[in-house]
Design a protein that fits this description.
heterodimer; A: mainly alpha; B: mainly alpha; 2 strands; 76% helix
Amino acid sequence: MRDRSLQYLLLVPAFVIVLATTLYPLGYSLATAFRDWDLTRSRQPEGWVGLANFSRALTEPNFLNSLWVTTVFVVSSVVLTLLLSNSIALLLRRKGRMHTFTRTVLILPFAMSPALIGVSYRFMFNPEFGVISKGLAAIFPALDGVPWLASPTLSMAVLVATDVWHWTPYMTFMCLGGLASIPRETEEAARVDGASGLRIIFEIVLPQMKGVILVTAVLKTIFALKMFDQVVTLTGGGPGNSTETLAYFIFNVGFRWYDMGYASALAWILTAIMMLISAWYVRMLLSERKMATA
Amino acid sequence: MTRHFTWWAERALLLLISAVVLFPISWMFLTAFKRPRDAYSLSFDFTPTLQNFVTVFSSPWNLGSMVVNSAVIASTTVAIAVPCAALAAYSFSRFRVPGRKFYFFLVLSTQFIPAVVIVLPFFIMFRSLGLLDTRIALIVVNLAIVTPFVIWMIKGFIDAIPTDSEEAAMIDGASRFRVIRDIVLPMAAPGILTSAIFCFILTWNEFLFGLILTRRNAVTLPVGLVSFRTERGDLWELMSAAGVMITVPIFIMALLIQKHFTRGMTAGAIK
């Protein structure tokens, strides 16, 4: 068989899957976003309502709350994860038995089910018998009896903690991959000239890591925007709606109130946000490449 | 003196990091072997018991059927996604398909679609087809998440294989099909295996689809965790036992392919 037809033939199975499982639903939900459809009333989509679902979102306090909650969650989770993963990667660069051990240990959180992470943090932060809440109280007596998951601020903090715990290892490996591709000569030369370790990190290593840090930042942002499992198993969006992220809000609208039209519109708003970020990411990355080759 | 200090400080920090990672996992494992009343105490001094595992596998929890559901769904998803993705990855890696950058970006951009967007139409569709609460439904939606990701990953692995031996074989008159079967596949095997395990882990841990599309028959392990929240409160010792069942197979897989695993994590993303 000629390569010319083979090159397309090889793509066919995967494209059929991708088309059927993502592009079709995407189109379907876009169409639904402009319709009125309460699943408890009707099995079929009802009338077309234009942009009504979208304008409803913009005036609904619950939606605006979820946007704010999502922003707080994404920003704190991304910043903390990046700081930690870059620092840990710098620590892990050298060789040693303790380094190898830590690398092995770091594989585990990524392999763990996020729903289960939520459940076990809920257990550990229980104010009466949680091992972390009691442990913290033993060190700082003022913290005894703090109702971690019943306070809006603290439950958000615990939610962020679960996410940082889950993703920092993955991002650390990405940073390590980036560090491995940096030539060591400049660093060695600076060390011979007597530059301090911190100066080397800030003035030589980190500037060369810009591309990798950018990639990890955007990937982490996308993962954080999608985060759903721990909201269900850790906080249930509460207390009140203080941890109700956009993804969880959409889930409630669609599968608790069965308002399909509105849920589709909300889902598309989330998609648009993610698309914008990824477009910006591709552009930044391309200009980064251009600078590197120039 | 300072050199000595930094040496120890570095190791102390690494120990701390490992402890922070291992502690929640170990606590769950310990709790799984505690009797209910010990689960609410913080002491390490308890008589270990296997009762929790017996309980979760018997009625009304029936963890066994969830294990079967999760295993069947994850392995079928892998069996469909990985071969298809491997073929596409080869094409992306080796041929200059016109517009391939566009196709590749199209595949990648599906990663930026929130799962909740995909599941809405599928919920409606499966509802009218009577496929809600079946394994087929979960396999279909999982393919949506996993396939693009696996294409991306396997392409990273195939890109890293030099083309010399392929070209030499072709000059000797071997067909492209034989080249793929006899040269590329064996060399890419570790990468493909790694991607398959990644794919298995993602599907095994998947929660949102399971929560929405299953009720009783096709419930998977992560979704089953929620059922240990009862009117009597959260049954932590049972949840932990179920957690051990979710975690152990995945941890074993992850550690088996440890070396490739970290490479696979980073392969697609850096390039």
